[in-house]
From TrEMBL:
InterPro entries: DUF34/NIF3, DUF34/NIF3_sf. The keyword Ribonucleoprotein does not apply. This is NGG1p interacting factor 3 protein, NIF3. PANTHER family: GTP CYCLOHYDROLASE 1 TYPE 2 HOMOLOG (PTHR13799:SF14), NGG1 INTERACTING FACTOR 3 (PTHR13799). It comes from Granulicella tundricola (strain ATCC BAA-1859 / DSM 23138 / MP5ACTX9). Residues 1-22 form the signal peptide. Keywords: Metal-binding, Signal. GO terms for cellular component: cytoplasm. Belongs to the GTP cyclohydrolase I type 2/NIF3 family. Transmembrane segments: none annotated. GO terms for molecular function: metal ion binding.
Amino acid sequence: MMIRTGLVLGMIGAAAVSWAQAGPRMTADEVMAKVRVGLGVTAPAGTVDTFKAGDPATPVTGIATTFTPTMAVLRKAVADGANLIITHEPSFYNHQDSSALFVKDPVYLEKIAYIKEHHLVLFRLHDTWHLRVPDGIAEGWVKKAGWEKYKKPGEQMFFTLPPTTLAGLAQDLQAKFGARIFRVVGDPAMRVTNVAYRPGASGEEKQVRALERDDVEVLVAGEASEWETVEYVRDAMLQGRHKGLILLGHETSEEIGMERFAEWLRGVVPGVTVTFIPAGEPYWLPGMPVGVR
C-alpha cells in the first residue's frame, strides 16, 4: 500500500513539475512580439503586418503558417488544433483587408463566422518577412529551386545558372514546384544563363529594371499586369533582344517562403506546435480539372 501510494504521489509531483515548467500558454500577441524581436527589422509606416481577425489576447494552442488563409487552410488549422494562423497574404481579398466592400457579402460573412466560431486569430506577416535579411520568402524559394550556389556575388535575386533554354528553364521550375500553370513570354529556344527572380506582385518598375540589366536574360516573377511587363518583354523579343519572362503565379512564387517561416518560427517559440499549411495553386487548365481544395 505504501509503495502504491508513493507511486501515485510521485506521478502527481512529476505532473505538477511538468505543468510548472510549461507555464501558461503564450497569447497570440506575445507570440507576435517574439516574432518582431526575432526578425530584428522595423516595419514600414502603414505596414499591413497586423492582426486581421480574432482577439490577440487569445492563448495559443498551436500555430499554422500559410500563404493565404483559404477556407481549406482554416479548416485544416482547426483540425490540427492550431488557433493562430500567420498568413503572408490578405485574409479578406484586398491588400489592406478592408471589409468596406464585403459588409453584406455572404462569402466574407461566412468566413468571419467560421473564424469567430472556432476562436481563431489571424495575423498577416508580409512586410517584415520580406525586409528580413535574407528576405524570408526569397530564401525559401531559392532553396526549393536549388539556386543557392548560383547567386551572383553580393546579390540575392540574381543568378548565373548552368546553360539551358527558356523552355527548359520553365519546365525545370514547373517540375520542382509541382505547379499546374506557368506562363512564358519569349523564344522557347533562347539560350539562358543569367536569371533574375522577383516574387509576388513586385510591380512593373522592379521587373523592368531587372530586365534592363545586361546580365539578365530571363525574369522569373510571380505576376504582372498583362499590358505592362508582359508586353515589354514581347516587344524586346520582337526587336531581337535576348529577353524572356516566366510568370509562376503569385502563390507558386512565394508560398514556399512561408514554409521557411514555419521552420524559423519553431526556434523562436520552442514548445509551441508550428505547422505549415499550403494554400495551393488556385488555377486549373481546361481539359485538366482538379479536385476542389
